[in-house]
Structure formats: C-alpha cells, structure tokens
Design goal:
By secondary structure, the chain is of the alpha/beta class. It is built from 14 helices and 24 strands. It has a four-stranded mixed beta sheet, with helices on one face. Helix 5 packs parallel to helix 6. Bound molecules: uridine-diphosphate-N-acetylglucosamine. Uridine-diphosphate-N-acetylglucosamine binds next to helix 1, helix 5 and helix 6.
Length: about 425
C-alpha cells in the first residue's frame, strides 16, 4: 500500500494545469453504449475510476484503446451485466444501466451498496426507468431490468440527483416519444453529457435548468468529444495555494461553473484573479471564518466541503459548515482533529474553530475528497504528515502529489 508523506509549511509557487473532469468523463463513457460504433473522447484524466469504467465497458464487450484520447468501440457489446466487483469499487458504474436497457432491452447491474459518505440509494434511477416502461426486479444484490419498448415519460425527482438525471437522459435518447425530467440536476457535468448526446444526434433541451426535455428515437452517430476541466480539482488547487500562502497560476480552470466555490474562497480571504481560463491565487491578509451550506449546483458543492474545511481549520474565528447532500460526509473530521484542528460535529453541521497551527500526524484517507482534505491540511501543518490509503485519492485526482511537488511542496509517495 502507498502513503503520501508531506513536510508542511512551504508556500506554493508556479503554474499547474487542471485535468479533465472525472464525473463528466465517466458519464460520457457510459453514453457510448447507446450507439454501437467507434467513439472518440479526448482530454481524459488518468484516474483509477476511469480505469474501472474502461474495465466495465470491456467486460461488456467494448474494444478500447488510448489513454489521453480514448477510442471506444461499442459495436460488439454482447454482455449486459455489470458485475458486483466493478460496481462496488465505483458507484458511477450504475450509469451503464440506462444505456444498456435502452439499446439492448435488458441489463443486469449490481446494486452499488453503501459507501463511506452515506447510504446513497438508487431508488430514483429505478423509479424513473420503471416509468419509462422498464420492468425491474431486484434479486441477490442485482438490478434486473427488462424492456420490450422504452417509452418517453414525465419524471419528477424528489430531489435533484446527478446520476439518475444522467441515466434517464441517456435512456430517453432511444425511447419512443418525449421524456421530461423535472427537478433535474443542473450540474455542469449533466450539461456536458447533454451536449455530448446532442453531438451524437440526440434531441435534448433544457440542460442546466431544472427541466430537461429529450425527444427519443433520433438516429445516433459516433461521438467525438473533449472532456471539460475538473472543477473540483481546480477548487482543490485554489485551496492549496491559499492554505500555504503561496502565489500560483492555475491553467485550464473552468471558472464559469465554479461561482459558489470562488465566492466562498474569496470570502475566506483568498485573492483569486481571473483571466479567461487562468486564475492566479494568492492570500491577502488573515483568513476569515465563513458559513457554508452544501447544495446541489449551483449551490456550494459537497465535493468541495472536505477541502474547504481543511482551510477553515487555520482560519481566525469560528466557521459553520452544513452538509445537506450526503448524510455521513464528515468522516475526515476525526483525522483533521488528530492534526490539531478543533471541529465539533452535530448532525449535519460542523463547527470549525480555527487554530494557529496544525501539527503533522499520521492520518488515514477514508474517501476521495477526504484524502484531498488531509493532504491540504498536511501542506499547512508544522512537521510531517503521513496520509495512508491514498488509493482513494487516485480514484479522482490525476497525480495530485506530483502537481503539488512541482509547485514546491515537500511531498512524496512511499510504499509501506
Ligand atoms: C454525483 C457525483 C458525486 C457528487 C454527487 C453530488 C458522479 C460520478 N458523482 O454522485 O461526485 O458528490 O453527484 O453532487 O457524478 N439519492 C437518492 N436516491 C437515488 C439517487 C440519489 O436518495 O436514487 C440521493 C443521494 O443519496 C444523495 C443525493 O440524492 O443524498 C444526491 O445524489 P446524486 O446527485 O445522485 O449523487 P451521485 O450521482 O451518486
């Protein structure tokens, strides 16, 4: 197993480039199932989750080559089963359900099960596909979906859900008639999927609003698409610049979809200068406490909560963070406290009382964003921090340790 060792206290300097967006790339990869041909996706990030989705598509029968530019041929898909071994390591594997049942009339996809940050059920995915004429049974941990003819439907989600909105949008492209998704997720990755589907020939409108309309049965063609930059990686790098008091330039930064993140980081006292897709990050004066509540887009992203919490641990005063998207997304708190942070959690709220100085410690990453949070805390801490279980980090950050090293951090990977 690998760990990351950080000797904190070095301000970061220099330039760094944001990689392609994990959550956008995964959905677009799933969408290639819809049409049996050779698809091209460029700007792919090198991540473990992408490798898992590749394995899953290959298991189904797709031929895949390339890395930065991925060529996926879904012409010979012969299997419609997503096995437990692949779905359990990555919940986004569930995104193959909609495209598989839409193209082949059947699919068997393992239930993702629980994960560290919460229960994360798939009931919205299932209810929506049932409304579209799919007959679904759950047996021995698998969702069995069968459908003779998928039909458009009017679907209202109780709360906006990224994955279910994407699954329905993809399935609706091959359904007979019109599908309307109300209370749809508005995340930029949903918008990108709609654009990619439109490139394939689908009729979709309303993405980015709470109502998405898909007219099905338009003839589809192979996809050629470039993945957008990762807004969560970009946000994490801004925090890295701010928490170390450095001066960095971040290239390929998707500022247009980072509104709430940039606003909060500026409120905290990070100076963020924007010039098209480049931002310059510096610290101006003392960091200020803030109140943050996570919400679906365009609200403050739950995927940035852990990283900003690391920043708030060294902010003068008391900050409040309320997590409303996932019910158990404060597991990193105990680890940050081991580094000298003062955080108290009650139900969905964390009260962070800033301390003068974090102290290096041995800590354990429990999920993807928690691992980034601990690395950020390590950059600011006095002494040595050892973050174990870094496989969580590699799921969703392309070479974060190498990028930080190039910016001047004293950080290295070690085998333990
Ligand atoms: C996606 C992102 C993840 C991000 C999350 C919220 C991907 C691959 N992952 O996850 O990084 O943190 O959006 O922005 O894009 N829910 C149900 N029933 C369902 C579906 C969801 O109750 O059938 C609940 C979830 O438990 C959660 C909320 O809805 O409380 C939002 O989840 P959702 O938007 O679906 O998250 P994911 O698509 O899993």
């Amino acid at each position: 197993m690998e760990s990351i060792v950080i000797r904190g206290g070095r301000p970061l300097h220099g330039e760094v480039t944001v990689s392609g967006a994990k959550n956008s790339a995964l959905a677009i990869m799933a969408a290639t199932i819809l049409q049996g041909d050779e698809h091209k996706i460029s700007g792919m990030p090198g991540l473990r989750d992408i490798a898992t989705m590749k394995k899953l598509l290959q298991y189904l029968g797709a031929e895949i080559s390339g890395s930065d530019e991925l060529i996926i041929n879904t012409g010979n898909i012969a299997c419609q089963e997503a096995p437990y071994e692949l779905v359990k390591t990555m919940r986004a594997s569930f995104l193959v359900l909609g495209p598989l049942v839409a193209r082949f009339g059947r699919a068997k996809v393992s239930l993702p099960g629980g994960c560290a940050i919460g229960l994360r059920p798939v009931d919205y995915h299932i209810k929506a596909l049932e409304a579209m004429g799919v007959s679904i049974t759950i047996d021995k941990g698998y969702v069995h979906a069968v459908c003779s003819k998928l039909k458009g439907a009017s679907i209202l989600f109780d709360m906006p859900t990224v994955g279910a909105t994407e699954n329905v949008m993809m399935a609706a492209c091959l359904a007979k008639g019109t599908t309307t998704i109300k209370n749809a997720a508005r995340e930029p990755e949903v918008v990108e999927l709609a654009k990619a589907l439109r490139h394939m020939g689908a009729y979709i409108k309303g993405e980015g609003t709470d109502t998405i309309v898909v007219e099905g049965e338009r003839p589809l063609q192979p996809l050629a698409y470039r993945v957008m930059p990762d807004r969560i990686e970009a946000g994490t790098l801004i925090v890295a610049g701010g928490i170390t008091g450095g001066d960095i330039r971040i290239l390929n930064c998707p500022v247009e979809c980072m509104g709430s993140t940039l606003e909060k980081l500026r409120d905290i006292g990070i100076d963020i200068e924007e010039d098209k897709d480049v931002v310059r990050v510096r610290r101006k004066g003392d960091l200020q406490p803030v109140e943050i509540t996570t919400h679906p887009y365009p609200g403050f992203p739950t995927d940035m909560q852990a990283q900003v919490m690391a920043l708030l641990t060294v902010t003068k005063g008391t900050s409040i963070i309320r997590e409303t998207v996932f019910e158990n997304r404060f597991i990193h708190v105990a680890e940050l406290d081991r580094m000298g942070a003062h955080i108290k959690v009650e139900h969905d709220t964390a009260v962070v009382t800033g301390v003068k100085q974090l102290k290096g410690a041995s800590v354990m990453a429990t999920d993807l964003r928690a691992s980034a949070s601990l690395i950020l805390a390590g950059l600011a801490a006095e002494g040595t921090t050892v973050v174990s279980r870094v496989y969580h980090l590699d799921r969703g950050y392309e070479s974060l340790d190498k990028k930080l090293y190039k910016l001047g951090a004293d950080i290295q990977r070690q085998q333990v």
